[in-house]
Amino acid sequence: MNRATAPLTPESRPRIGPGFRLQWEPVQERHVLLYPEGMVQLNTSAGQIMQRCNGASTLAAIVAELEQVFGSTGLEAEVRDFLALAAQHGWLRWDA
What we know:
Helices cover 34% and strands 20% of the residues. By secondary structure, it is an alpha+beta fold.
């Protein structure tokens, strides 16, 4: 199963999709996703999420780490929403 069919579970391990590269752009002071046709500028929250989508960290671990970084709780729904959007654009994928 790939990002198009695999459900997102706490054990899912999101990773950057093929053809995309995440990098910090010092001039813009933000993370961007580079791809052959262009670039996607990410806001702070999206950049923080995407940095953790390394294919090794689970959704549960990503949420826990973000909650610690932002000093907040209850971020899972927002992280899931972003991951779903990113998957629709092909920025991310994960296996079941």
